[in-house]
Amino acid sequence: MKINQLLASNLIHYRKQLELTQEAVAYKAKLTPNFLGRVERAQRTISVENLDKIAKVLKIETYKLLMPLDLRQDL
């Protein structure tokens, strides 16, 4: 799996876990919903700074957004 696809899958997983919409996450991270949607569809790359903003909204460590599901369970 490509890293942008892994990131997209993880963003959706954690966002849905908190029952948040793309719009809510984007607003709290000071990003546009369109941008976040494109990241979640693996159509856009993202800076480390923006990735960190999203992770804070999702209340997780940034590195977890880049880890496969099977590795995250132990952390």
Task: Describe this entry's structure for a reader.
It is a single chain. With 75 residues, the protein is mainly alpha-helical. It has a single domain, classed as lambda repressor-like DNA-binding domains (434 Repressor (Amino-terminal Domain)), CATH 1.10.260.40. The chain has helices spanning 3-17, 22-29, 33-40, 48-58, 69-72. Helix 2 (22-29) packs across helix 3 and helix 2 crosses helix 4. The longest helix has 15 residues, at 3-17. The two termini are 21 Å apart.
CATH class: Mainly Alpha
Secondary-structure element string: HHHHH
Described by its quaternary structure, the protein is single chain
Instruction: Write down how many β-strands occur, each being a DSSP E stretch of 2 or more residues.
Output: 0
Shape: globular
Number of domains: 1
Strand percentage lies at under 5%
CATH fold node name: 434 Repressor (Amino-terminal Domain)
- Give the overall pLDDT as a whole number: 93
Q: Kindly name the structural category.
A: mainly alpha
Question: Quick summary of this structure?
Answer:
The protein has helices spanning 3-17, 22-29, 33-40, 48-58, 69-72. By secondary structure, the chain is mainly alpha-helical.
